[in-house]
Design a protein that fits this description.
Blueprint (H helix, E strand, L loop, with lengths): L2 H14 L4 H4 L5 H4 L2 H16 L5 H12 L3 H6 L4 H18 L5 H12 L7 H13 L3 H13 L7 H8 L5 H13 L6 H11 L5 H14 L3 H14 L3 H14 L3 H16 L4 H8 L12 H12 L3 H13 L6 H13 L3 H13 L7 H13 L3 H13 L9 H13 L3 H13 L7 H13 L3 H12 L7 H12 L4 H13 L8 H13 L3 H13 L7 H13 L3 H13 L7 H13 L3 H13 L6 H13 L3 H12 L11 H10 L6 H8 L7 H13 L3 H13 L7 H12 L4 H13 L7 H11 L4 H13 L7 H13 L3 H7 L3
Length: 824
Amino acid sequence: MNLNKTYTSILQGLQQFEVTAAQELPTLTREQLKERTGWLRGLVLLDLAATQLPENKETVYDFYLKLITENLDFKASVYLDDEDYDFYFRTIMEVLHKLAPHFPEVYTQIAFQYREARRNYRDAEKTAEYLDKAIAHNIPMAIAVKGYFLYYGILLEEDQKTGLELLNSSDHFWNQLYRGYIALGDGERDSIPALIATLKSLADAQSYKSVLLFEAHYYDVTEDLAAATAAYKKITDEYETGYSLFRLGTIKFAESGDEASRAEAFSLWQQAFEMGTIDGAVHLGYHQLPESGEAKAFEPAIHWLQLAYLYNNAYAAHRLALIYLYAPEMIDIEKGMHYLDEAILNESADALLDKAEMLLEGALITQDEAQAFVLFQKAADKKIPYALNRMGYFYDSGIFTGEAPNPVKALALYEAAAEQNFPGGINNAGRIYRYGDPELQDMKKAQEFFERGVAANAPYSMIELAIMHEDDTLERDYQKAFDLYHQAATLDYPYAIQAVGNYLENGFHNQNPDLEAAFEWFKKGAELEDANCQYETGRCYRYGVGVAENPDEAIAYYTKSAEAGNPKAMVELGLCHEYEYGVAFDAHKAMEYMQQAADLGYYFGEYKLGYYYMHGLVEQDTQKGLEWLEKAATAGYPYAMLEIGDYYVYDYDGIDQSEKAFDYYQRAYELDVIHQGMGLCYEYGIGVEANMGEAFKYYQMAADRDYVIAMYHTGRCYLEGEGVKANDAEAFRWFYDAAQRNNLASQYYAGSLLLKGKGVAMNKEEGLDLLQKAAEEYAPAQFDLGNCYLMGDGVEEDEDTAMYWFEQAAENGHEKAMKLTGKK
């Protein structure tokens, strides 16, 4: 419709029939005013009546209240096109300006019109100007509204101090009401019921609706849904406010997922929007967004979001931006960025942060880290917790700030985010107090922040508090640590899931391992694609931990974990190919997996790769082997130190640098790892002064840890009385233990002692059996076995067999055998 023509036509009709505005005003009912033409007729009459003031002042004022202050003006204008809306806005403002000198309260309404108008008509400066005009006339509502706007920074620059001064300037109804809203926002609920009672006693017929809305909001905040629903229904029945319609629609939408409830909710939201509650259009748009589909599928959502955007709704602008930036069927970067910038202008924190992240990453738009930093700073200045935390990270790490890392400034920003219960800020503040620069470390404060994080359901804080109970920062309590890990694990936090599995597997917290439960947690983490839990699940299948051993499953989980970059899984796959577990032997694949793990700096991968090169699994390259073993040793892996010590002691490359071995063996020993190397060094004076007492000590220490060669040397010391008093029984014990582990020299000595009955009851059959085993490769055993056959000691005398063994010994360099056989 052409509003200008319609308005003029109505005016001319009234003038033609000489209708008196004052007489006509009371005849227009609310139902008539809810229709656009009826409302427009009312505006014409109000305009005429305003020119005749102060005649019929009370009648005019009452009609003004009915026509303008109950959102019927919005209902009449909501779907107007741009041309008609321009006429509507200019005309209603002209009428209000005519009324204001006679009714100063109208200045407050003019301020509201500027605040609630469409884009290009909304005017923050005019809003403030007309609130101030009303305040100059001591209009209580204007005083309260401006105080509230200042407190929360609505259209005006935030100034909580001045806002509170205005709100506390009197105990007028409106001041108490808006103080009540602030108290609810700050979580102060106990005093609200008494305040509601006070407000009801103070309210007049016009303001009573506001008390009922406040009461319903209180029920909402306290999550008394039944009371809130009843209150909103009462308001809707008596006053038909947009907000009560909106909340009823939202409650209806949440209580059931059936189509009838959804349709009823949509109807209520539309009515709410038409009565001035823009969130009604926002919900209509949001809940009609398709997950995917052709562009046509987006039309209903876009229709409502654009209407909300038309009325300056930042959320709607942001949603439209997301549609045009990311919905594949709707991509329009220029349009998307337009809406994003509009959302930022309308104070959308999410839009501001989105653009900052886009500039930081160079996503969809040209990367501009400096501008991203500016936007994050702007958001932090508005005390947006995510931005405070992000800026904290920038100062923490010294990126984009143009200065060195500044943990003090970072901590202040983290704490500012934490004050708003932002989990990231809580976590990071606790982290700095726990791990930061020494002058900032404060374990008590770290504990306090992590406990706040636990209360805020932040898994990181749960884990850090658990670790503090493990490492004696707090009183060691593995049950508390487990409970915290378990709490984080139930939130699907992979690190915690792995920790729970480890606790259950080992029973750290209750000395009662539960392998089946451990496996189930590892598998849960694996299903969340966590590489560490995939590795643990593979390990369980590999070794039958809490589940039946299954090579195929073990290999499958190890492979997933390795592909995700887990070096421990790479090592396990390498070992599987080396030892033919679940796969065929493949030296090249074993090398390949160890190389991958080593390249990631994993010490065991470095050790195994060095071992492979040292001993020639695929190719022998002792220098490469030494290089990788050194890396593992530098990382503190003691077995790499032993391997390097062996390289020098046994002089693999003939470089005659055996004295270097002692240092490596000693470093391993200091890490509580020892084999025969230390004993050899002390026995033969390699890198240290010879000392058989010390040699025996280290041999026996290594023997006690099941090192077979050390068992042999310990037996030899007892046999020969070197470094310890001779003791044939102890000698036999150590030789026999080593012999059972296929040590040739020990088989020889144990067999010889059994043959002689020395240190053990004579048993020629077992003694000969051990000599026979050793004689397969060991020259002294071959020579002694020849003597047994020559002399008929435990076997039938047989010179031919004796000569055979003498010749074998001679070929292996046994001096007496060479003299006996004449071989060189």
